[in-house]
Amino acid sequence: MDSEVPAERKISLFRDAAKVHIQRAREAGNAMGVDRHMFGLRHLVRANEGETMPSIFSDPLYQRASKWTLSTSAIFSKHFPAYGWGEVVPDGFGVAYMTGYNDRMQFTITSRKEMPSSKFREEIKNAGEELYALFSQAQERQSSKAKM
Asked: Domain Choline/carnitine acyltransferase spans what residues (predicted)?
């Protein structure tokens, strides 16, 4: 994390990003995500019957947006001892995460052998430790202010 940015600002930015993420996840869960809509339209085209694929599906931006290098899924329950989710492109990662615990988050990371996941796993671990330290320090500051 950038040591030049004050902790309060980092926490504020994190909370703002989390709110947007939650809203977008909710929208996608309610069939309001554009990616599934476009996926469905693309698969309705009957190319094998001579129907022409609309040009949007060969547009470079659409192609890039349709490549899911990071494919994730979550379970928000502690009642599952393990959970997995696979990568969907050869040079990608599948990340299943579980957040139903009070003392940890659990991640299962998958990839093909061409994309070793050890470095990716280490970066997730580092990010979690940095966030834990950031919020723990903020909580300690709040506690010491309350005691004054």
From this structure: 2-125
